[in-house]
Every structure is written in structure tokens, then in C-alpha cells.
């Protein structure tokens, strides 16, 4: 029996996350979620199980509400890097989830790197 698209996505997400846990040295995880309309990102401390910082294209102060494009993802990446600096975080592991590293996910990661977050 063939797996559905959703089941394949979940397997890919778990594979990526388990590889990150294997090499984790105490750095937080930068977890990305992309829907059809929005993109959001969280800095998560897996040891304590809490979110340290977050950013989303739904936030009105970023000026990207209603825009589902690479530019909006880049602004979200810049925002998370700035919020990470305020929280005292300069490095993190990039958790792309089950999403491929291209398009919006890649733009978000590159914008965060340019803004000073080491991924």
C-alpha cells in the first residue's frame, strides 16, 4: 500500500528532526512551518521544552500580512534573527521540518543568516 502525501511529509519531518536531535549540542532549534498562505518560525529550547522567540507572516508590524511570497519569508527571517539577538541567542540548528529547502524556506534561512544568526 502506497503512503499518502501527508504520511510521506510526516516521515520526512521526523527524519530531519531526529537527525538534529542526534547532533544537538545545546543550541536551540529554529523550526519553520509553511502553510499555503503564511510562514512562521520559532526558536525552541528542546531541553526545557519552551519557545524562546517566534515570528510569523501574520504579524502586522512586519508589513507582510496577506503576502505569500519569498519577500515575506525573508522579512520573517530578519525578524527572527533580531528577536534571537534580543534573547541572547547567536546560533541555532535549522529545522526545515518536512519542507524542501528551496523557495520560501530557503529565503527565510538566508535572511536570518544575513541578519547575524548562525545556522
TrEMBL record:
Part of the 50S ribosomal subunit; part of the 5S rRNA/L5/L18/L25 subcomplex. Contacts the 5S and 23S rRNAs. The gene is rplR. GO terms for cellular component: cytosolic large ribosomal subunit. One of its GO terms (biological process) is translation. This is one of the proteins that bind and probably mediate the attachment of the 5S RNA into the large ribosomal subunit, where it forms part of the central protuberance. This is Large ribosomal subunit protein uL18. Belongs to the universal ribosomal protein uL18 family. PANTHER family: 39S RIBOSOMAL PROTEIN L18, MITOCHONDRIAL, LARGE RIBOSOMAL SUBUNIT PROTEIN UL18M. Keywords: Ribonucleoprotein, Ribosomal protein, RNA-binding, rRNA-binding.
Amino acid at each position: 500500500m502506497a503512503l499518502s502525501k501527508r504520511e510521506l511529509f510526516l516521515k520526512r519531518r521526523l527524519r530531519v528532526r531526529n537527525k538534529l536531535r542526534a547532533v544537538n549540542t545545546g543550541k536551540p532549534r529554529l523550526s519553520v512551518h509553511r502553510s499555503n498562505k503564511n510562514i512562521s518560525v520559532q526558536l525552541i529550547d528542546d531541553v526545557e521544552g519552551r519557545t524562546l522567540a517566534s515570528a510569523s507572516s501574520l504579524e502586522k508590524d512586519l508589513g507582510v500580512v496577506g503576502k505569500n511570497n519569498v519577500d515575506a519569508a525573508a522579512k520573517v527571517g530578519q525578524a527572527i534573527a533580531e528577536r534571537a539577538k534580543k534573547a541572547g541567542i547567536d546560533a541555532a540548528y535549522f529545522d526545515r521540518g518536512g519542507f524542501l529547502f528551496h523557495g520560501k524556506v530557503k529565503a527565510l534561512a538566508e535572511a536570518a543568516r544575513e541578519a547575524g544568526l548562525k545556522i
